[in-house]
Specification:
Number of helices: 6
Pfam families: XRN_M
Protein name: Xrn1 helical domain-containing protein
Strand content: under 5%
Number of strands: 2
GO molecular function, one term: RNA binding
Order of helices and strands: HHHHHEEH
Organism: Noctiluca scintillans (Sea sparkle)
Strand order of the largest sheet: 1-2
Radius of gyration: 20 Å
Number of domains: 2
Largest sheet: 2 strands, antiparallel
Distance between the termini: 36 Å
GO biological process, one term: nuclear-transcribed mRNA catabolic process
Structural class: mainly alpha
Length: about 180
């Protein structure tokens, strides 16, 4: 489990003599810890812009999916981060009012491919035997998709199950190839 705080509210975790971080310090620390973005570095602003663009794409994807249907949203798009940017920063992002977002529609996964993409190794029995070995065999080309041990970020969560599992995102092409 990672994160500087446990599942208790932060104000109860900080030592009494430790001052609360300023909003600016908290912002810099958040982007550094959650995204690996050093806001003082020359490429920090560029990385942050990429994060903002990806988040706006995610909002647009959700709108397309729910208001136009699944076929209007991209089948292959996914948000490539574990956390969201700060809303304060999104509002000042110059592309916020006129984002340029284009999705490649692509093709949906087949049912067993979708299950392989979302199920943990402990649920492999829900799939036909011909796919079960892919979850835990040393010869599986996609074994890294199903780690036995991984970190859970519980920073800021209020309930034990509210953490973010820090596992690798799957490679859809590798998944489909392994299932052939």
């Amino acid at each position: 489990i990672v994160g500087p705080r446990s599942a208790t509210p932060p104000e109860h975790d900080r030592p009494v003599d430790e001052p609360a971080p300023t909003p600016a310090d908290a912002r810099v620390q958040y982007y550094n810890v959650k995204f690996g973005i050093d806001m003082q570095s020359p490429d920090g602003a560029q990385k942050q812009r990429g994060l903002f663009q990806a988040y706006l794409e995610g909002l647009q994807w959700v709108m397309y999916y729910y208001f136009r249907g699944a076929d209007a949203a991209s089948w292959g798009w996914y948000y490539r981060y574990y956390h969201a940017p700060m809303v304060w920063d999104l509002v000042s992002f110059d592309q916020f009012s006129r984002p340029v977002i284009n999705f490649e529609i692509g093709q949906p996964f087949k049912p067993f491919q979708q299950l392989m993409a979302v199920l943990p190794a402990g649920s492999k029995s829900l799939l036909p035997p011909c796919y079960q070995w892919l979850f835990d065999s040393p010869e599986s080309p996609i074994l890294s998709f199903y780690p036995k041990n991984f970190e859970i970020d519980v920073d800021g969560v209020k309930v034990p199950w509210g953490g973010v599992s820090l596992i690798s995102f799957i490679d859809p092409e590798l998944l489909v190839s392994a299932m052939k």
